[in-house]
Amino acid sequence: MTLADIFPSLLSGTPPRLDSAIWPRETHYDEEGRITVGGVALADIADQYGTPTYVLDENEVRDRCRAYRKYFPEAETIYAGKALLTRAVAEWVAEEGLSIDVCSAGELAVALSAWVDPRRVVLHGNGKPFGELETAIGSGVGRIVLDSLSEITLVSALATTPQRVLLRVTPDIDVHGHPAVRTGVADQKFGFPIGSHMLDEAVERIVRQPNLEFAGLHCHIGSQISDTFPYGEAVRRMIAAMARIRDEHGVTLTDLDLGGGHAVAYRSGDAEMNLPELADIIEDSLDAACARHGFPRPRIALEPGRAIVARAGVTLYRVLTVKHIDDGQTYVTVDGGMCDNPRVALYGARYDAVVANRHPTGPHMTATIAGRYCEAGDILARDVRLPVDLRPGEVLAVPCTGAYHHSLASSYNGVGRPPIVAVREGHTRELVRRETLEDLMRRDVGR
Ligand code: LLP
């Protein structure tokens, strides 16, 4: 039993703990009681760059890349750029030895403009527009992940030299996540169901095309997966499929890409993927499955997106209003919301938030953080403990917002998207500037 159990009122004065599971490693309180990330006070960033602003800790991104290199020394780690792609991020991950997965000509352009070697780029997508395929092949992307029968013909027709390809397979593994991110099950838009005639047909077609170099199979079983078991199962099923392709089509594939989906903690206590355990289960299932089918060990690739950048990101908002509804909730409205973080509305995601401009030591209240957009569903976080004397103008920080925030952002209600400001060793650097009213008006050419 702790003192707080005996005197619950003590809790009200307990300042929020900055849990290293959800904040960048270099997060502290400075001597003035303000939160600092990467050696910079978040309140200073809010003053200098305005709010809302996405803060991104460069060292945290690099550390996460290094963790993958450390625990999967023989595998290729391919950063899934859809989580967050800017030129600087592309540069950092490439410098740390990662390849990059892109799913559009836009993402490809960002990666190439950061001088990422095109041979280290993997192109994804269940529907790749003709022009984008042409651009990707023309720029020499290393691998294209084929996702439909018609695409096989198209890529083969467009390639002037043999194009390395992977075939996307759904291994029929259900990780029971949110329906929007359950990509391992058979009946959905991605890939070819394992064991299906369509998969056989796809293999047959690829093998017949001299312009395609059939490197291997790909699967991506879902998102926010903290359990390692489904990855072991994916390895077993995919190796069995590769052995079958060898036996029936006479090709021995060398590459197995296991996709991404490794969970991070958004709030204290959330489960996250344990990388050493994941490495062990992949190794063990590979050994066993390859021995069972007499199949040569393929090169493994992993495609983490969220696990590389989520925890490196912190979003800053300013409090606009604090409203206490009689017999209802306390709404703290901030100057951002569903446009910079649509994950709450889309997936029911849950976040924590703390005051960043001071170290609150007085009593706390439970509040709902509301966005400023014109929808009742524009809520950023519920049941958040904030100081009772919270005032308009104070800075709130929401941790673990590096992945699928900026990349999913919109300019709904005519509000420009926030900037991304990188922090490192006490310095800031703007990576993406704020979208201005002028930017928004420039697209409106109809007058
Ligand atoms: N590889 C493929 C083929 C993918 O489709 C994805 C994610 C990844 C890798 C990376 O997954 P990660 O490691 O980041 O979970 N907007 C949703 C997530 C959508 C994921 C789409 N594909 C969210 O905010 O939770």
UniProtKB/TrEMBL annotation:
Its EC number is 4.1.1.20. Pfam families: Orn_Arg_deC_N. Pyridoxal 5'-phosphate binds at G261, E303, P304, G305, R306, Y404. Pathway: Amino-acid biosynthesis; L-lysine biosynthesis via DAP pathway; L-lysine from DL-2,6-diaminopimelate: step 1/1. Keywords: Amino-acid biosynthesis, Decarboxylase, Lyase, Lysine biosynthesis, Pyridoxal phosphate. GO terms for biological process: lysine biosynthetic process via diaminopimelate. It catalyses: meso-2,6-diaminopimelate + H(+) = L-lysine + CO2. InterPro entries: Ala_racemase/Decarboxylase_C, DAP_deCOOHase_LysA, De-COase2_N, De-COase2_pyr-phos_BS, Orn/DAP/Arg_de-COase, PLP-binding_barrel. GO terms for molecular function: diaminopimelate decarboxylase activity; pyridoxal phosphate binding. Residues 59-310 form the Orn/DAP/Arg decarboxylase 2 N-terminal domain. The active site is at C374 (proton donor). PROSITE patterns: ODR_DC_2_1. Gene3D superfamilies: Alanine racemase (3.20.20.10), Lyase, Ornithine Decarboxylase, Chain A, domain 1 (2.40.37.10). It comes from the Bacteria. Its cofactor is pyridoxal 5'-phosphate. Substrate binds at R306, R343, Y347, E375, Y404. NCBIfam families: lysA. This is Diaminopimelate decarboxylase.
